[in-house]
Design a protein that fits this description.
Layout (H helix, E strand, L loop, with lengths): L1 E2 L8 H7 E4 L4 E4 L15 E2 L5 E5 L2 E4 H10 L6 E4 L12 E4 L1 H5 L15 E4 L4 E8 L2 E8 L2 H14 L11
Parallel strand pairs: 1-6
Antiparallel strand pairs: 2-3, 4-5, 5-6, 7-8, 9-10, 10-11
Length: 173
């Protein structure tokens, strides 16, 4: 199966004849019978193990969120699509937005290997204190060493605001 490129050769007019999008639920449904498993009225696509929904149209695999953007706005997104609430299969129109890679990274979930529960804050065994930092433009900006966890968190949260990170950045699912 082919994967869609950045500018797939499919028209909005064609999509409007085969799919119906509900912006409130974020669900695409088939308007035609495409296969035994893709029948009129059925939910289009499947959720991949990455969490994203993919839809196969005429042998080409598309990301549902990019199709939805195209259907809604009439043009393909130039950049990435960010899922504001971090749920990759939630494609309601108020949850998806076009974002640069930097913007998308500034709305990332908490890393699974994070032990403090706060992005950019960790316990230094050597110093026996909390350290706060933030990554900006590929470089780490040191925010300080703190006796108190709360102070380290405040330093990081202040930096999030200063550097334009999304309010959801660092939240876990």
């Amino acid at each position: 199966m082919k994967k869609a490129q950045n500018h797939p050769q499919i028209t909005k007019e064609y999509l409007d004849t085969i799919l119906r999008y509900d912006p409130n639920t974020g669900i695409l449904r088939w308007l035609v019978d495409k296969s035994p498993s893709a029948r009129y009225g059925h939910i289009a696509g499947h959720i991949h193990n990455t969490g994203y929904t993919y839809i196969k149209i005429d042998g080409v695999r598309y990301s549902a969120h990019r199709l939805i953007w195209f259907i809604t706005y009439g043009s393909w997104p130039i950049n990435q699509i960010d899922h504001e609430n971090h749920i990759r299969s939630c494609n309601t129109i108020d949850n998806i937005k076009e974002a640069t890679s930097t913007q998308n990274n500034r709305n990332a979930t908490l890393r699974v290997d994070n032990k403090s529960g706060v992005s950019g804050v960790y316990w230094s065994i050597d110093k026996r204190k909390w350290v706060a930092n933030i990554s900006i433009g590929g470089r780490t900006v040191y925010l300080g060493i703190y006796e108190d966890f709360f102070d380290a968190v405040c330093a990081r949260k202040s930096a999030d605001i200063k550097y334009g990170f999304h309010a959801n950045h660092g939240q876990s699912l």
